[in-house]
From TrEMBL:
This is Transposase. PANTHER family: MECHANOSENSITIVE CHANNEL MSCK, POTASSIUM CHANNEL RELATED. Residues 192-318 form the Tc1-like transposase DDE domain. One of its GO terms (molecular function) is nucleic acid binding. InterPro entries: Homeodomain-like_sf (IPR009057), MscS-like_channel (IPR052702), RNaseH-like_sf (IPR012337), RNaseH_sf (IPR036397), Tc1-like_DDE_dom (IPR038717), Transpos_IS630-like (IPR047655). It comes from the Bacteria. NCBIfam families: transpos_IS630.
């Protein structure tokens, strides 16, 4: 039974939705989420003692926030303004930090550190860091970019993305590429296993036992991969891999192969093979645009989960690991989902080209 001395707490539908949103939203301050849970629990009924036990706070906390809500409703759950310490950093100093970060570099350096800039402006390093965070500035970071100079960039983007988003009927679409020079690396000391509080450890140096190349064809519809390990990646090796795709693909399907502009993919031996296999058609990605080939995403998984921490004492061991990885992948294969349309990609490229063509650049 509820406490008869308590004033009934009735929530409107809007108030209930707002309070439930505060409880569920991760970005909400913990104190505000707790107060919302208290009010929701009070609305369900019960005494202050029962609500306190249900929420996991003391009775005084429930009494305080229940009374605040009844008096001021949702506004009463927010923290009241506090005077705090008087501000010591002026707007001019904030502007100087931002302007110097964006438009200048320190003498003899390429970018500001928080301590160098703090000495120049006359504030503390922590204040510089807070200003950087407030304005989204990260002078310690850098990224690289390459805009494709391919004259057929737009046509190729539309062609490849069209195969991802609207593949032809009665056809198989494969994203194909090579991962060259995969090294068989043996650590000079045994790998020390992970322990509680201690990560796995391996020696910095290694013994190299040679390299292999891996041809991979990712079926964009199923996520399954056809792989072939080769000593090299010449045109004849690519032709042999096309033979492997041909053998493992339903003969009643047309085959569309997405690949990059490597010279081995355009060699006469490949042209002759394509003439003898008319169901195959090659689609080339734009120059310097490996990001559009989905098999590169699969190569990233291969590197992270198989090769990066692998130890291989011979080329045979490396080949066995690659074949095993492909087999395990195919047993639980899932396709990568392409979401951007060709128009969205082209618009973004145009915006980026416009930015880097401005006078400031």
């Amino acid at each position: 039974m509820g406490d008869s001395r308590l004033e009934p707490l009735v929530l409107s539908e809007v108030e209930r939705q707002v309070l439930q949103g505060w409880v569920k939203r991760r970005t909400t301050a913990q104190g505000l989420a707790l107060r919302a849970r208290i009010v929701l629990a009070c609305a369900e009924g019960g005494s202050i003692i029962a609500v306190a036990a249900r929420v996991g706070v003391n009775r005084g906390t429930v009494t305080k926030w229940r009374a605040r809500f009844l008096r001021e409703r949702l506004d009463g759950l927010s923290d009241e303004p506090r005077p705090g310490v008087p501000r010591t950093i002026t707007d001019a100093q904030v502007e100087e930090v931002v302007v110097r970060t964006l438009e200048e570099v320190p003498e003899g350096g390429t970018h500001w550190s928080k301590r160098e800039l703090a000495r120049r402006v006359g504030i503390s390093p922590s204040s510089v860091l807070r200003i950087w965070h407030a304005f989204g500035l990260q002078p310690w970071r850098t990224e690289v970019f390459k805009v494709s100079p391919d004259p057929l960039l737009i046509d190729k983007v539309r062609d490849v993305v069209g195969l991802y988003l609207a593949p032809p009927a009665n056809a198989a679409v494969f994203a194909v590429d090579e991962k060259p020079q995969i090294q068989a690396l043996e650590r000079t000391a045994p790998v020390l296993p992970m322990l509680p509080g201690v990560p796995e450890r391996r020696s910095f140096d290694y013994i190299r036992h040679g390299t292999v190349d891996l041809f991979a064809a990712l079926d964009v519809a199923t996520g399954k991969v056809i792989g072939k390990v080769s000593a090299r990646h010449r045109a004849v090796d690519f032709r042999d891999f096309l033979d492997e795709i041909d053998r493992q693909t339903d003969p009643g399907l047309a085959v569309h192969v997405i690949c990059d502009n490597l010279s081995a993919h355009k060699a006469p031996v490949v042209h002759r093979w394509l003439l003898a296999h008319p169901r195959f058609r090659l689609h080339f990605t734009p120059t310097y645009s490996s990001w559009i080939n989905q098999v590169e995403r699969w190569f990233a998984e291969l590197q992270r989960r198989c090769l990066e921490r692998g130890v291989h004492c011979s080329l045979d061991s490396l080949k066995a690991s690659l074949e095993s990885w492909i087999k395990v992948w195919n047993e639980n294969a899932k396709p990568f989902k392409w979401t951007k349309t060709a128009d969205q990609i082209i618009d973004r490229i145009c915006r980026y080209c416009s930015r880097i063509s401005e006078p400031a650049h």
